[in-house]
Design goal:
heterodimer; A: about 425 residues; 2 domains; 11 helices; about 50% helix; B: about 450 residues; alpha+beta
Chain lengths: ~425, ~450
């Protein structure tokens, strides 16, 4: 406490150098806290569970050759599903238009409580499904029942989406019915017929996994239908996605046998040799590649930045110690202990870092606000800045320790030397 | 004199090795991070057609209305009604309609069928975007009118199907129909693929392998494969058949017009406005004209082509360089002021202020040069690891070329010089007499 006044007096003689360190601490805090916050949001984003048995699931994207009509495609899909389900090592399979972590492909459902409601419909992501879908995904019902085989319809590219029954995720029930059970309730996917919610599943991510659909990624509707289209329609891509869940340890085998069995069934199909068959593990890696990349880069830049700041503090402190050898000698000669000198430099550093931190908090908040407007980042909680400030303060103390110890080692006899 | 200053710089570096190493390291890291992210940024933010980008325009017409459009902006694509009206009006030097689809190629031999992405385009497409042909050329306006079964294929598809031979005039089976190949494109991959990114979405990947007449694709009821959105807020806009798709207010066709002069642009803007006013007049639009005409640069901005990861890392790395710069100013200050006695002696012996400036700036430039060399090494290292951070299709675009090397060195020297300005000024202020006296 007693030492602060002489420290301020000394700093006043080195205005520019002090200002530079303060500025550097402030900039470092602003950048590091924002970068770490981005890392955190990315890590949270990419570690979200999809709710499905990813380790044993794969998807086959199958396109139809020769523009067959809806009944033909539907018959072929039934035959394909029977083939897939009877394969050794396959636990279950069903047909949809997209798969989790695909980064697109799925349909967007607009759910209304009433046909003529004036409020905005609730958005959700949809999968086509049948009575095998829940077992294939590996997601559990928390209420209600599964689809029955006789409820699975057939949908062509120009047909309306108005299923009699649907299954939705728990997350979606909270949004649709904040205070009450969802099973048995009616909602509208289109203006024609109401759909009865017959079941609620625990968790099932939609097929987008992107930042633009983040708010509805867990709001999923299962539509009991086989979508039979050879060409891309208005709402869905053409062709079909077969989702296949294997027995433990059988994934590698099934990845080879399943497409071969389909081709043996009928040759009028196209399964891309490059990316026609995708395991959910591969889909996850691909879907979050950018998120992981950004997180790695931000973390690396933070490390470099902290090292640079530490280096700067060491450099400038050493310079100051060199410049003040004589006055340190005088203080030592007048009775100051080595501890006093050590403490002097550490308090000085803590003071400078403190000023820098105050400035840095303001800069950091400003940077966060401007990033929020451009990059859909959430607001940064203040504790991130607190952690950053603590980190910098510790770093400062660590960096100044070496030069301060050298200062403490200055013998009192320096006082008599010119300099 | 220059060699003398270099000699002095070398001596001073030898005296304070740690400080010099720190400055070089900081400059190297700062410059390298900037250059690596800049290489990616440059690749994604580059003008894909610099010789013509201010003559090519995207017209937008608001057929959604204020209740359904995005914050007052018209949809990025056109409805079939507006697209065809624009094509037939012939108000620009060239006009092109584009939409993307997937086509199944059925080779005649035992080869497996292929699914290929293609654009349905009107005949002006190739001339408007200066697409280079290896063999043959585009199709004519009369081919468009007659809905001819003709196709232009990419060199990659030509390689796959015909081993790279001149395939003009040969037949190809697409979606079970036979087409005559009229042209084979050269390697042509503008990035971003600005002309169909609103319709086909991926600006840096999914290169198109086929180009077919727009009118024929419409006749075949070939739906758009990626982007199709409607003004109504129900799931699918109640489209029971293809005819209703064509007459719907759904947006799915990209349009481009070529307007060589400013007068043409002004005239076209008026025409677009009048067209929308007419649609309001006949009762199709219940709102006043809301149209846009954007050139390539404005369009890339509207489409947010630069990936967020790229722009974000550019911001972070520039901040990093800035912090390094502040750091280097401090270190340079320490470095120069430590030599105050030496400066005093030099000044006392007759060196002018200018001489001191020259000495220290040359020293800074030399350090910057070394930092630049380190920066080059680190940049090369970073470019090798770029695939781990950015998506492969974007990382692939970033290349280490001569201009990047030059820029790295320039940036390193320039930033070090800027960092040295204040410390040098302080050094030049040293009073010779005072220094000599205090040195005893």
């Amino acid at each position: 406490m007693i030492q602060i006044r002489p420290i301020l007096a000394a700093l006043r003689r080195h205005k520019m150098a002090t200002l530079l360190i303060v500025l550097q601490i402030a900039l470092t805090l602003a950048v590091v806290s924002n970068a770490l916050f981005i890392v955190k949001t990315r890590v949270v984003h990419l570690s979200r569970p999809s709710g499905v048995d990813e380790a044993h699931l794969f998807a086959i994207r199958n396109e139809w050759i020769g523009l067959p009509d809806v009944p033909h495609i539907d018959a072929q899909m039934r035959a394909d599903l029977a083939t897939l389900r009877s394969l050794p090592g396959v636990r279950d399979a069903f047909a949809s238009a997209s798969y989790p972590l695909e980064q697109g492909g799925g349909g967007l459902a607009h759910i209304k409580h009433q046909v003529a409601q004036t409020t905005k419909p609730q958005l959700a992501l949809s999968y086509f499904a049948d009575e095998h879908a829940l077992d294939t995904f590996g997601t559990a019902l928390v209420a209600g029942r599964n689809f029955r085989a006789d409820e699975i319809g057939r949908l062509g590219p120009y047909d309306k989406l108005a299923p009699a029954v649907i299954i939705i995720t728990r997350d979606l029930t909270h949004k649709l019915f904040p205070d009450g059970a969802a099973v048995g309730q009616h909602v509208y996917l289109s203006d024609d017929n109401p759909s009865t919610i017959v079941g609620v599943v625990d968790r099932l991510e939609g097929s987008y996994a992107g930042s633009s659909t983040r708010s509805i990624d867990e709001d999923t509707v299962l539509v009991p239908a086989r979508y039979a289209s050879s060409d891309d329609g208005a709402a869905y891509a053409g062709g079909v996605v077969y989702l296949v869940r294997t027995q433990p340890g059988q994934l590698e085998t099934a990845l080879r046998t399943a497409p071969a069995a389909l081709v043996a069934q009928s040759r009028l199909r196209l399964i891309s040799p490059e990316d026609g068959v995708v395991t959910l593990a591969q889909a996850r890696t691909k879907a979050y590649a950018t998120d992981r990349g950004v997180a790695i880069m931000m973390a690396a830049v933070c490390m470099l930045l902290l090292l640079a700041t530490a280096g700067g503090i060491v450099g400038l402190s050493s310079f100051w110690v060199g410049q003040r050898r004589r006055s340190i000698g005088v203080r030592r000669a007048l009775g100051a202990t080595r501890g006093d000198i050590l403490r002097y430099f550490q308090v000085e550093n803590a003071l400078i870092v403190g000023i820098g931190v105050v400035l840095g908090v303001a800069l950091g908040v400003a940077a966060n606000l401007s990033l929020m407007t451009h990059y859909e980042l959430p607001r940064m909680p203040l504790w991130v800045l607190g952690v950053g400030a603590l980190l910098l303060w510790l770093l400062g103390q660590l960096a100044v320790f070496g030069p301060a110890r050298r200062a403490a080692a200055v013998p009192p006899v320096e006082a008599t030397r010119p300099g | 004199m220059l060699t003398y200053y270099f000699d002095l710089a070398l001596r001073s570096c030898r005296r304070s090795k740690a400080l010099t190493a720190l400055v070089v390291l900081l400059m190297g890291c700062g410059v390298a991070t900037c250059m690596v992210t800049f290489a990616v940024f440059r690749a994604t933010a580059a003008d894909p057609i610099p010789w013509k980008s201010n003559q090519l325009f995207v017209p937008q017409i608001d057929n959604f209305g204020p209740a359904h459009n995005g914050k007052g902006e018209p949809p990025q694509l056109l409805s079939y009604t507006d697209a065809v009206a624009l094509l037939h009006a012939q108000q620009a030097r060239r006009q092109v309609l584009i939409y993307g689809s997937k086509w199944t190629v059925l080779p005649d031999d035992a080869q497996q069928p292929l699914s290929q992405e293609g654009d349905a385009v009107s005949h002006d497409f190739f001339a408007m975007f200066d697409a280079p042909f290896r063999y043959g050329g585009g199709w004519s306006a009369s081919d468009d009118d007659q809905r001819a079964a003709v196709v232009v294929i990419s060199s990659a598809l030509n390689q796959k199907l015909f081993g790279g031979a001149d395939s003009v005039g040969r037949q190809i089976n697409l979606d079970t129909h036979t087409y005559r190949i009229v042209g084979v494109l050269d390697d042509w991959n503008p990035s971003p693929r600005f002309f169909d990114m609103s319709s086909a979405w991926y600006p840096f990947s999914h290169p198109r392998q086929l180009y077919l007449p727009f009118s024929r694709a419409i006749d075949l009821q070939k739906a758009a494969s990626v982007n199709f959105y409607c003004s109504t807020n129900s799931v699918d806009a109640a489209l029971p058949n293809w005819d209703s798709v064509l007459h719907s207010e759904c947006a799915w066709i990209a349009a481009w017009v070529e307007l060589p002069t400013r007068a043409d642009v002004a005239r076209y803007r008026d025409w677009l406005h009048n067209y929308a006013a007419e649609q309001q007049h006949v009762g199709r639009f219940a709102w006043p004209p809301n149209v846009r005409l954007s050139d390539v640069g404005q369009w890339l901005h509207i489409m947010n082509v630069v990936p967020k990861a790229s722009a974000l890392s550019m911001i972070v790395s520039v901040s990093f360089l800035l912090i390094c710069l502040v750091n280097v100013v401090g270190l340079m200050l320490a470095r120069f002021m430590r030599r105050a006695p030496e400066i005093g002696v030099r000044r006392a012996l007759g060196a002018s202020r200018g001489a001191i400036y020259r000495q220290f700036l040359i020293e800074a430039a030399a350090i910057g040069l070394v930092g630049g060399v380190l920066g080059l090494l680190l940049t090369a290292l970073g470019m090798a690891g770029i695939g781990h951070v950015f998506e492969p299709e974007i990382a692939r675009l970033a290349t280490l070329d001569a201009s990047l090397l030059l820029l790295t060195m320039l940036l390193a020297v320039a930033t070090t010089l800027i960092a040295a300005l204040y410390p040098t000024w302080r050094a030049a202020q040293v009073q010779p007499a005072w220094q000599l006296k205090s040195n005893g």
